[in-house]
Write a structure and sequence with these properties.
It is a single chain. With 107 residues, the protein is of the alpha/beta class. The chain has helices at 10-19, 29-36, 51-60, 76-84, 92-98; strands at residues 3-6, 24-25, 41-45, 66-71, 88-91. A five-stranded parallel sheet has the order 2-1-3-4-5. Helix 2 (29-36) runs parallel beside helix 3 (51-60). The two termini are 17 Å apart.
């Protein structure tokens, strides 16, 4: 399974690494689309500057890879905008509780 993650926070990144040791970690939004080519799953921190715009453009251009993102539960507008862009958007706590289940396509 090819997994790409834009999760710059060190603690969050370690949780992603634990669930997906094979994940390709990208450090910048500009690297995300290229790295996601051929990926089965993309994981993103939706609160990073430029992420929503990049994902919206990519999805509009036909990017059909499953993208699951997270943001603080108080960032309702960010979560809603991500959903409109075709991203499975979850509050941070829910995302990390469900992280290992994402491998099988489950929540």
């Amino acid at each position: 399974m090819k997994v790409v993650a834009l999760v710059p926070d060190l603690m969050d990144r370690s949780k992603v690494r634990e669930a997906f040791p094979e994940a390709a970690l990208v450090a910048r939004v500009e690297q995300l689309v290229e790295a996601a080519s051929g990926a089965d799953l993309v994981l993103v921190d939706l609160q990073r500057p430029g992420v929503l715009e990049t994902l919206t453009a990519w999805k509009t251009e036909g990017g059909n890879t499953r993208v699951v993102g997270f943001a603080s539960h108080v960032e309702g507008e960010v979560l809603a905008a991500a959903e409109r862009a075709g991203v499975e958007a979850l509050p941070r706590s829910v995302f990390f509780r469900r992280l290992t289940g994402l491998r099988s396509g489950g929540e």
